[in-house]
């Protein structure tokens, strides 16, 4: 899949690193990126510390075609993403008149206090990401897309981004699973399938469920013909173990 | 919390980057590390690509006191963590006799095929991590602790590690929440609390639940006295908004 754009996610959040919060934004963004044909190559979680955010933004934006950040864009003292992005890009962090006016209109002059006025400060050159559910100030600057940490707001922002992001060839996935199959028994066969279809990724994932244990084989890539051929061979491999292969992911 | 050991998590997994799998290992390890008094400073997710794994291992083990990896230690072609760790440390990847014998005993000679024999290969100098639920070959080498990706196996390995990891001062957390509280209204007060108690981290997290929306204030740190004082002040801040503050996290 060499021609698809690459992507990274940067999660800015003490709440993930402390174990307080289960991150669910990665899975959402990852799934959407696959559908858009972007290859997600890395995820990083860093604390709400300016120097750490700035360094991660600069490393990731240099390494990948797009960077998606979540978290740290609210009105409180721990919301420092926006000013860190300005520092990372070496541009002023300044009043964004359009956002200022919209916030003032939305909140009323009395509620538009100093803390909330910070939300109208953006890096120079930033373009706001419209979103239908909140006043949280997401924005894009260069190849960095800055979104809220709250999942439903992040998702609304991503929907806005989807209308402007470049499209690649969608990355498709096929799965087959077999109950009671042991990874070690089909490993050599899987390795041969991967060798025959180097243009797709063949993954093997043992699962342990109340309904039963086994192995799921997952093939992903942009070449649908190779994908179908590879998953068909994985199916035969499971059948050769005397087990009935079942298309799709194992039941939850 | 400057005297506590620092930590990073490295998740090796195409299945996370493709959006197929919801990572739950980060939250588990993060919570346990906080209890052990280790400061989790970074999480990275990288694909099953040797060069990427090696680079991440070397960057993280240089930057943090401990690195915990998950994923890629099974018998299939996409399980390359162990040999990558050997490459990262610049040591041979070789047959570990004790693991070899245990696997052969456990599986029987006939089942102990070439694919499974790979699981008995470890970086020279690695020490196996005992675990009660599987034959998956976790190990520690230097400050890097290599665990399975399957959550229940990873958790059993982490339990083994906990008996040998250094202890720091446990990182405690206190939370208070207020329904209908707006972040922007308490932002200035929270900022003042953070300034008065620089030894703890004061975080503000809006929540949106079917049972109601509001803000949770979370304070964490090793100084329990400061923690109690800070959360008490956050409580007063919410009360000053005319809202009854409730100790603990908001209801799910």
What does this entry show, briefly?
With 252 residues, chain A is α/β, with parallel strands linked by helices. The first copy, chain A, has helices at residues 14-17, 25-36, 50-63, 81-89, 97-107, 114-117, 151-162, 183-196, 224-239; strands spanning 6-12, 39-46, 66-70, 93-95, 121-123, 127-128, 139-141, 144-147, 172-179, 201-209, 212-221, 246-247. Helix content of chain A is 38%, strand content 25%.
Explain the overall architecture.
- Two copies of one chain form a homodimer.
- Chain A has 252 residues and is an alpha/beta fold.
- Chain A folds into two domains: 6-162, MoaB/Mog-like domain (Molybdenum Cofactor Biosythetic Enzyme, Chain A); 172-247, Alpha-Beta Plaits (2-Layer Sandwich).
- The first copy, chain A, is 38% helix and 25% strand.
- Chain A contains nine helices and twelve strands.
- A six-stranded mixed sheet of chain A has the order 2-1-3-8-7-6, with helices on both faces.
- In chain A, strand 10 (201-209) and strand 11 (212-221) form a beta hairpin.
- In chain A, helix 2 (25-36) packs parallel to helix 7 (151-162).
- The radius of gyration of chain A is 22 Å and the shape is elongated.
- Chain A starts with 5 loop residues before the first strand and ends in a 5-residue tail after the last strand.
- The mean pLDDT of chain A is 95.
- Chains A and B meet through helix 1, helix 2, strand 2, helix 6 and helix 8 of A and helix 1, helix 2, strand 2, helix 6 and helix 8 of B.
- Strand 2 (39-46) of chain A pairs antiparallel with strand 2 (39-46) of chain B.
């Amino acid at each position: 899949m060499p021609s698809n754009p690459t992507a990274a996610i940067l999660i800015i959040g003490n709440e993930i690193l402390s174990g307080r919060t289960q991150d669910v934004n990665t899975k959402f963004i990852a799934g959407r990126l696959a559908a858009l044909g972007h290859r997600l190559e890395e995820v990083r979680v860093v604390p709400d510390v300016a120097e750490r955010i700035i360094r991660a933004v600069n490393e990731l934006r240099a390494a990948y075609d797009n960077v998606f950040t979540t978290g740290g864009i609210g009105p409180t003292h721990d919301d420092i993403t926006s000013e860190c992005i300005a520092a990372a890009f070496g541009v002023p962090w300044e009043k964004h008149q359009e956002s200022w006016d919209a916030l003032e209109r939305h909140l009323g002059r009395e509620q538009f206090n100093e803390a909330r006025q910070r939300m109208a400060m953006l890096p120079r050159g930033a373009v706001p990401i419209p979103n239908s559910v909140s006043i949280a100030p997401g924005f894009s600057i260069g190849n960095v897309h800055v979104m809220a940490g709250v999942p439903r707001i992040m998702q609304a922002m991503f929907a806005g981004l989807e209308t402007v992001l470049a499209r690649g060839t969608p990355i498709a996935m096929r799965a087959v699973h077999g109950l009671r199959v042991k990874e070690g028994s089909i490993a050599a066969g899987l390795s041969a399938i991967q060798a025959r279809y180097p243009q797709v990724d063949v993954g093997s994932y043992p699962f342990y469920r109340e309904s039963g244990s086994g192995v799921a084989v997952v093939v992903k890539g942009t070449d649908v013909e190779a994908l179908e051929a590879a998953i068909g061979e994985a199916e035969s491999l499971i059948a050769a173990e005397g087990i009935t292969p079942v298309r799709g992911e194992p039941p939850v």
